[in-house]
Hints:
Radius of gyration: 15 Å
Mean pLDDT: 84
Number of helices: 6
Shape: globular
Largest sheet: none
Distance between the termini: 38 Å
Order of helices and strands: HHHHHH
Amino acid sequence: MKSKILLIALTASITLNIVFILSLLNQNSEENVEQTLNRFMFDAAFQIQDEMTEEHYVRMSQTFDHIEELARNSMDDSDFSREVWQTMSVVHQQLTSVDHHVLELEPETRREISQTINHSVEEQNINEIEQNIHRIINENETN
């Protein structure tokens, strides 16, 4: 039963994200790409919750995949996309690595990571996300 629900949620999420990406590619506007990348980053941060489930993890990972794909496809036209791709690729690896898997982090640490992503996107300091998450994870290990 859980696997059917997860499969339905996964299919709906993928379909929705494909529609967004296709609409962006049709409009081919740097501003729209930036808005969509920001929305995807907010969505990824939303999936990193105190009580994070495997379903949240799957959606977070897919959202990071979409961010990386969209940013990579629009890097030639946008410095912002290049910066997002470089940063979010590393963040995705940080949160899914064996050493620091996001599901194994403390709820407070996940909350802080989510808030860091949101704050950095709001303040347009994308390049700070990677360093801040690295700092948060290291502080969690020392405590």
